[in-house]
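Chapter summary example.
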Amino acid sequence: MLNRIQHSLSAKLIILFICAGIVLLLLVGSIMGKGFSRHFRSSIQPFMIHYINLMHQELGSPPDLEQAKRITRDIPVDIHVFGPEQNWSTADKQLDRNELIETFDRRRSVNLKPSARNALSRLDRRFRLKRVDGDLILYTVEGDYDIYFQIRNRRDIKHGGRFSFFVLFAILAILLLIYYATRALFRPIEDIDRGIKQFSAGNLTHRISKRRNDQLGDLTDSVNQMAEDISNMLEAKRQLLLGISHELRSPLTRSKINLALMDDSASKSEIEKDIQAMNQLINELLESERLNSPHKIIQPEMTDLHSLIEEVIESEFANQTISVELQSVTANVDPVRIKLLVRNLLQNAIKYNDNKKSAPKVSLTVKSQRFTIAVRDYGAGIAAQQIPFLTEPFYRADPSRQRMTGGYGLGLYLCRMIVEAHCGHIKIESKLGKGTRVRCSFPLSGEN
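The structure predicted for these 448 residues follows.
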C-alpha cells in the first residue's frame, strides 16, 4: 500500500491538500482564537464583571434564591451561596466550598488585561476573580454569606458529539470528493501509461482513448501519433526487406544455373557455399517478415513431434553426432515451421559446441498440457548481459559476422517468431565456459 501511494501522483496531491488544509486551519484558528481572546478580555470581560456587580446588588441581603433563579434563566451564570443557615445553588450541582476556599487562597490570580483589571478595581474591593476549568468565578462576601458567581462555559455533550460527528463526516466527504476529482483529473495519465506498455509489448495497433480536450488530451494525441509513425516506419522497413529479398531471388537463381555449368574446382565450391548462405539469408528474411505480420500465416495440424525431430536430424545433420532424448508427443503445430525451428537451433548448437566436452543435445518433453523442445551445446557460452538481445533481428554476440562464426543474426529471431506464432515462449540459458541451452515451450493445443 505504501509503495502504491509513493508511486501515485494523485495520492501525493491528496496528501499535499490535506497537509496544506491542516496547516491553514491551525493558522486561521490560532489567529482567530487570539483575536477573540483579546477582544473578550479587553471589551467583553469588563462589562461582564460590571454586570456581576449589578446582579450582586439585585440579589439583596441576605441573597434571595428565587431572585437568583430568575437571573440565571436569562444569562449564562450560576450562583452559589454558602451561609450559616443554608447553602444553595442555581446549578444542578453545587461547587465544593473547600475547593473554592483553597482556590481563592492562592496568590496567583487570573490573567486579565489592564482594562479588565481597571473595571474590576471599580467594583467592591471584596470581589476576587479566578479562572477554574475554563469558567470565570467571582467571589464576594455579603454579611455571613459567601457568594460565588460562576460565568458558565458549558459544553452540551450530546449536541457537541453530534456536531463533532457532522464535522468528521464532512471532512471525510470532502476528502473523498477530492480523491475522486483528482483521480478523474489524472485518469488520462493512467490510460497513457497502459497504452505505452501496449506499444512496448509490440502492439502498435493499440490506440489510447482521448478523454478530454486539454493538455493531457493533447499528450494522448501525440502518443497515438508517435505509435502511428513508428508503425508506418516498421511497415516501410518490412516492405523494403521483402522487396529486396524477392528481387535478390532472380539474380541468385541465375547464379546457381551458371555455377552448375562450371567445372568442379575449389573456387566453385566456395561460390556454392556463398550462394547457399545468401539463399538461407533470403529465406530467413522472408519467413521472419511473414511471421511478424499482423496475420501470421501458420497451418497447424496434429503432428508426431518425435518423428519430426528425428526426420530433421536424419535429413540435415546425418554426419553430425547429436545426443537425442525424445518423448512421444503429438501436438497441433505447423510442421514446416517447427522443422525450421529445430534446424536453426541445431545449427547454432553444432556451430558453437566444443566437441571435446560432449555432443550437442536435443530433447523433447511434455508436462501439464505443454511440450518443450530444448537444444543444448557445450561451447564457450554467452555473457549474461547479451542474452536478452539474442532473439532480436540482426543481433550477434560476435559482431564480426564472419562465415566461421555464424550468419547474420536472424536465426534466433526467426525461432522466436515461430515460437510466438504458436503461442509459446522461448528462453535462453547460458554460462560462460559451460555452454548454452535454448528452451521452447508450447501448448499442446496450439492455444494459450
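To summarize the output: The longest helix spans residues 9-59.
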